[in-house]
Amino acid sequence: MHTGISRIIADLNEVAKFVNFKSQRADIIALRPELLDIEILSGKRTYTIGVEGISDRMRRYLHKSLNELELLKALEHIYAKKPRQLKLFFMITGLENDKDLKEFKDFIMKLKRLKIGLSPGCRTIMSFGLLVNLPFTPMQFAPTIKDPDSIKQIKGDLKRDCETNGFEFRMAQDMEEFQVSQHIALGGFECFETISDFAKKGGYFDGEHITGDKNALISSLRSASGEGLSGVKDESYVFPFENLRGAPAKSFLYRMYNEARNFKDSGYCLLGKGECIGCGGCEDRKLSRLPEVGKEDIERLKKIVELKKKPQTVQAVVTIKEQGRFLTPEAKCAFIGRAVFEHIPSLVKDYLACRQVQNMPASKGYGFLFGRFLYDFEFMGSSDVFMGYLEKNKIDSPLLDISRVSEKEIGNSFRITSVWKDVSKYGFQNMLQDFLLENGMGFDIRKTDGVTYFEVAAKDRKKKLLNSAALRQENSIVSLEIETGSNFSIVSLLKHLFGEEWMDAKVEAV
Ligand code: SF4
Fold first, then answer.
1. Which atom number of ligand 1 is nearest to the Cα of residue 286?
2. Mutation to probe ligand 1, out of 282, 288, 289 (largest number of atoms < 8 A from CB)
3. 31, 210, 408, 469: which has the highest count of C-beta atoms within 10 A?
4. Residue 138: is its pLDDT beyond 60?
5. 428-443, pLDDT tens digit by residue?
6. Separation of CA 202 and ligand 1 centre (Å)
7. Ligand 1 centroid, distance to 283 Cα (angstroms)
8. By alpha-carbon position, which residue is closest to atom 3 of ligand 1?
9. CA of 275 relative to ligand 1 center, distance in Å
10. Where are the domains of the chain?
11. At 408, is the pLDDT very low, low, confident or very high (cuts 50, 70, 90)?
């Protein structure tokens, strides 16, 4: 962890609405619990800790440099902050023995006491994964978990100990997915044909989900790579891509594996946690120091958090272009933020976030047809620069543009004009009546000066579809003015009235 982490977090909070943290090292939290203060201030309420081995011995095997005392100290600090959720991630290596399992059970009992005493409401999840021996790590030399039955007992014991003590138990992946992942990670070009044939037959695997004949895939991968891949390997074993530059030296990895198989963990290059182990990652071999938590950073963070609690919100229209139509809502927001910064770089500090306004006719009706959506834009401080820019310009990017809200586009009244070829006198009116009835809307009709008015019954307006409609028809041109509710979809009305030619109808806000 960077020694200036508290300054970095305070700085990031000045430019981003949310600053989140992924999983973190328990030994650092044990030594620097003040880190939790800045995380809590940043809004963190859920913690993920990578514990890895289920016992001190297994953590030494995985070179985790973390003993139970440090782990419990860190977890005590976390529970004292009353988090909403705590997730501990463990790895099953297949080497766990009865002593390891007993130690895990004792640990769970100690954790239960901490939880009850400090944070009984905290949802605590114990997530287990099977160790995938990855290339470019010491574990590439280790035997892989090959037989699902060999871990069945271990898994069963862990599950029982978690659940009987009130902790949720989760397995991160199933055995077949694990076996395919392990093969793809350590296998070489010899597996190419097998994987390619599997895909040609419609098989699919994204690292977590698999479709297709899993067992056939596993046995073909096994015969393609031979037994060598799953056994213990020595320094002469040739791993795929091992000549790539930048990876730690193979001799270093093998030395570390030899320490691991003897359950020896000589720590790592953090002052107080060990020495330089010669990974080749830096030239000066200087030991790292613990991160500092500066008082001034905490004070600065407190002020920023207060400002963020009262953001200034303004609205603008975002038009999504054809290329951006299938973006997820989150991706749209990311591209909107990017477009704002590209056009008005001075907003980097003040701009916080944007989100589509929900249940607004401009966003759900008119917008749905024309790709124009109403968005809320949040600013820490003033929004004047943003609004001033939109007064004179449009923010235009390849995927979208942002413009100020025109009075014509918000509101809930639209005029639909189209050609109507049906010669029968009440053809169009009947179609409209059908639409109202099909959608459960009762109505009154009156006719004045050639205009037919439909007033939807008060109780049916609660459906928030239509309030009223006014219909004019002159020769082959029909014009329909509608007042809509927030659940209205203009496309469904157009399709009902005009069938396949619905896109020819002209729609404008009135
Ligand atoms: S070489 Fe550098 S990074 Fe690697 S263990 Fe030594 S001090 Fe740490």
1. 7
2. 282
3. 469
4. yes
5. 999 999 999 999 999 9
6. 46
7. 8
8. 281
9. 8
10. 45-261, 311-403, 413-509
11. low
Instruction: Give the pTM.
Output: 0.74
CA of 282 from ligand 1 middle (Å) equals 5
Q: In what order do the strands lie in the sheet with 85-92?
A: 46-52, 85-92, 123-130, 168-171
Please give the radius of gyration of the chain, using alpha carbons only, rounded to the nearest integer: 32
Tens digit of each residue's pLDDT (9 = 90 or more) over 228-275:
888 999 999 988 888 876 678 999 999 999 999 999 999 999 988 889
Q: How far out from the chain centre does Cα 416 lie? A: 40
Q: Pick 311-403's CATH classification: 3.30.70, 3.40.50, 3.20.20, 3.30.2310.
A: 3.30.70
Placement of tokens 């077949």 in the chain: 176
Mark out the alpha helices in 362-423 (DSSP H runs).
Answer: 367-370, 384-392
Per-residue pLDDT band for 354 (boundaries 50, 70, 90) equals: very high
What CATH code would you report for 413-509? 3.30.160.110
Query: Which atom of ligand 1 is found nearest the CA of 276?
Result: 6
The CA distance from 159 to 170, in Å, is: 8
Q: Tokens for 78, please give them.
A: 């976390």
- To test the pocket of ligand 1, the residue of 2, 256, 273, 285 to mutate (highest count of ligand atoms within 8 Å of its CB) is 285
Q: Among 2.30.40.10, 3.40.190.10, 3.30.750.200, 2.60.40.10, name the CATH number for the domain at 45-261.
A: 3.30.750.200
